[in-house]
Design brief:
The protein is mostly helical. The chain is about 65% helix and about 0% strand. Strands 1-2 form a two-stranded antiparallel sheet.
Length: about 425
């Protein structure tokens, strides 16, 4: 088709990279870009909504199994929360001094250059992110089908098929509108806080009523092999994973100097409190053996304590997992957009839809690899597979923060970790 007759053209950004536009050539040139639509409330919903997803409903079993006792499992939950807070504060500093989207990838690029960033990008694309999405998706599938198969076990193939459908729906929503994606995220965050409340309230009531027999001899280990303890921390850190996701959409945040650190601190306080209370609630009702035998911990808890109302709990948990998938995809697609702008992915992934202002190509990039891993693995094998790579890369990013303090001391830092000179 003749270039002048085409109604589509490529509108270049300030770096000369293309973005798909669908206006006539005679229209006034304007840059197509993502708007600043992320406020403090939607920022908190992204972090809380992404962290509280599958983790609190999957990880209690893994942490108890590998820590060996009730008391040690609770200590693991607390330590993981503290470690996550330290990491979150480091990312708050990075997010306020490097105001670019992309998260880990962008910070490695700024600190250590394109080679390490390239390795991180392709590790994310091939291994970490698809496995993470598959884990969340499998939990979504398990819980959404649970009421239909009670009291029998849900067929694994049915779980995987409904998970693939759920992932496709999340990608469709993200492709349509950033505004509606953010609104859906807020809605599902509220739903998951309701789900947490339905577990915490009766569980804490049971605790104060005297149901504390599972806390007696809390540190008596059923598993004396300390070599499995790192796997408990893998499960715990997976449950807290998500505090760094707001940094993936920095360019879309309104007033990032204030919003990023404030959203991170508020979110971590909410999440840590919820996690500790939920685990206390579990142990007031379920024994160690019952928790380890359960495929859906929250459902087993509800069956023992809530009677017929337990049928509603899988729905709340499924909505929680769906919200986590929604938030994860919203932020992860921005990494691929930024990498495309830097020339480390094909140019098509930096293109933005002219009317919807969404990076459609970057959004659908993960789907094929995620579905492949979904059908090849199970929740716990995928969890252990992704955990080491994920936390290794985050450790390198935090090292990059220290490195930047020495190599670029004049870089503006509105919020500085470990220093009282900040403006939050």
């Amino acid at each position: 088709m003749n270039r002048r007759q085409s109604t589509e053209y490529i509108d270049a950004d300030e770096n000369g990279h293309g973005m798909l536009s669908c206006e006539p050539l005679g229209a006034k040139d304007k840059k197509v870009e993502l708007g600043k639509k992320v406020t403090l409330l939607s920022g908190i919903s992204v972090i809380v909504g992404t962290i509280i997803g599958a983790g609190i409903f999957i990880s209690p079993k893994g942490i108890l199994k590998y820590s060996g006792s009730v008391g040690m499992s609770l200590i693991v939950w607390v330590i993981c929360g503290v470690l996550s807070l330290f990491g979150a504060l480091s990312y708050a500093e990075l997010g306020t001094c490097i105001k670019k989207s992309g998260g880990h990838y962008t910070y490695l690029l700024e600190a250590f250059g394109p080679h390490l960033a390239f390795i991180k990008l392709w590790t994310d694309l091939i291994a970490i992110r698809p496995a993470g999405m598959a884990v969340i998706g499998l939990a979504f599938g398990q819980y959404i089908l649970e009421p239909f198969f009670m009291p029998c076990d849900t067929p694994p193939i049915a779980v995987k098929l409904i998970t693939a459908v759920g992932l496709a729906l999340v990608m469709y929503t993200n492709s349509m509108s950033v505004t509606w994606t953010a609104r859906i995220q807020i809605c599902f965050t509220l739903c998951k806080l309701v789900a947490i409340s339905t577990i915490v309230a009766p569980g804490v009531y049971q605790f104060f009523k005297g149901e504390t027999h599972n806390f007696e001899n809390a540190f008596q280990r059923s598993n004396t092999d300390l070599s499995t303890l790192p796997l408990a921390f893998y499960s715990g850190m997976y449950a807290y994973a998500g505090w760094f996701y707001l940094n993936f959409v920095t360019e879309e945040i309104h007033n990032p100097e204030r919003t990023v650190p404030l959203a991170i601190c508020i979110s971590m306080a909410i999440v840590t409190t919820c996690y500790v209370l939920v685990n206390v609630a579990y142990y007031t009702v379920m024994s160690v053996e019952e928790l380890l035998d359960s495929e859906a911990v929250a459902v087993t808890f509800a069956k023992k304590l809530m009677g017929r109302f337990s049928l509603a709990v899988p729905g709340f948990v499924a909505m929680s997992c769906y919200g986590s998938m929604n938030g994860s995809l919203l932020v992860l697609s921005r990494t691929f957009l930024v990498a495309s702008r830097e020339g480390q992915l094909p140019e098509v992934y930096s293109m933005i839809h002219i009317r919807r202002n969404t990076p459609v190509a970057a959004i659908i990039l993960l789907y094929p690899i995620t579905v492949l891993q979904l059908f090849l693995g199970d929740i716990y094998s995928l969890l252990n597979f992704m955990s080491f790579l994920r936390w290794l890369s985050i450790g390198v990013v935090v090292l990059g923060l220290i490195y930047l303090r020495y190599t670029r001391p004049d870089l503006p830092r509105p919020f500085k970790t470990g220093n009282q000179e900040h403006q939050a």
